[in-house]
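dumping this here before i forget
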Amino acid sequence: MSGAEQVVERTEAPAAPEEHHGGLARGRRVVLAVVGGAALMAVGGLLATTLVKSPAQVAAETGPPAQGVLTADVERRVLAQTVVMRGTVVADQSVAVSPQGVRSGEGAGAALVTKLPLKAGDPVTAGRLIAEVSGRPVFTLHGAQPMYRDLKPGSTGDDVAQLQQALRELGHGTGGDAKGVFGAGTKAALTAHYRAIGYAPLPAVADGGAALKAAREAVRSATWAVEDASSPTGAVGTPEETGSGRKGGATADPGATASPGAGRELARARQALGEARAALAAAEAADGPMLPTAEAVFLSSLPARVSSVGARAGSPVSGPVLTLSGGELVVEAYLKDDKRQLLRAGMTVVISSEVSGTDVRGTVAAVATERSAAQPAGPGPQQDPGQNPKGGGNGGTGAGGGADLGYRLVVRADQPLPAGFAGQDVRLTIESAATDGEALVVPITAVSAGADGRTVVTAVSAEGTQRRIEVRTGTSGDGFVAVTPAQAGALGAGTKVVIGVAPRETRGKSK
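structure:
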């Protein structure tokens, strides 16, 4: 081989290693690609196995899980059954003043309101003039018994005794009158009160004094008749001419005998005089002032206040002229038949005011035995908050005609309610039943009745074992019931009892 050829071969020889190196690089890339693809396929397969499930697996995972039990602890406490309702705070006494049948003594006519000196919210004290109807006064007096009849001289009874006490409280003494007897002292006291408010009382006998005058004339005539019958027998002439004063010195014959009928005439004259005097006493007793039913309003608690005014001066009396509220604040509610059977007077109550956030304890004072009806709305343009809108209290109810309200329930607070409670709608929580002291208490759902009629609870031990314990049930309320184990000591406070079942995670499933 020539030198030139050798040079050429040496210069071309190095090209072979470069070509081999390029092939190795390509090979490595292919291998890496294959390995990467396999890895991706493996990861994809793994993901697919977690997302794709067989129908059997899906059914197994969506089926109902195994069940466990719910338990509650047995408690030892006083259990009370409660009734919750709404009520309205109103005055204890609400009186609608409707002065019908007012007599002015000056002829009959329609009753008209002639004066209304008060407005809604004004205070009212004993003896206060609250209205004038047809010129006659209407005033307040202290007393619990409402007026139901006219009180006149000679009247007797508890209502007369109440009037006497009311007049004495105003400073008008009733003298020596016996309690409950409308006598001369009561006449004077009543007359003094009418004069104090600027009026004259109506006479009990509206004849202008004719009966009394006639009785006095009868006594005078009977007295003269007795004197005439008592004159000496045989006297001649007038009384001025008989006896030692007789003119001419004529005297009765001392030997003269009395006529046969003289003694009888004298006895009859004396009897007539006695009867005339008795009639005069009766006329004098009947004469004097009277207290008409329409002119006095008795309130058991004073001072009171005007709750509403339902008329104006000049309007006819066709309903309540005004409404008065007095006494302490109470809560009034109305019951349906189901709740009325659960409640009675004396039960404990919690009065809750959402406005002030205050709870006050009280007692059920009364549960009505007859249903109440709402009164039709009146024309009263003025109304004071806190009045009884149903018209409850002495003299405050009228003939029905409104919607049925139910049975009226009255709750009285243990301590006087604050004045700010007046008119509020409050919540009443009434304990209608309670255990006699502390008792074992369980949720109602813990008690079950077996086929044998026994009532049992199921107790669960710390290890999870269950045992049935026979019990007797007692008072229930608020979802709980008092129980007594049939075997003493078989059940105690803190024991866990089954109250239901609850789903439980299947074993091996992640939580």
